[in-house]
Design goal:
64 residues; 2 helices; 30% helix; alpha+beta; 3-stranded antiparallel beta sheet
Amino acid sequence: MANKGKLRITWVKSAIGYKKDQKATIAALGFRKNGQVIEREDSPQIRGMVFKVRHLVQVEEVKG
């Protein structure tokens, strides 16, 4: 179940040189440019996507 919070996700490393599915996951999260910060509702689906590209992103939990 969702934790009623949000995740602040920052894309910190380029996806160049990584597999296509990891590039697709970055795009599916909503990133367009390296260095971009997005906020997404905390859910198991988003957590799974973040786990797949954990070496490319930085994650913070945001209450509220």
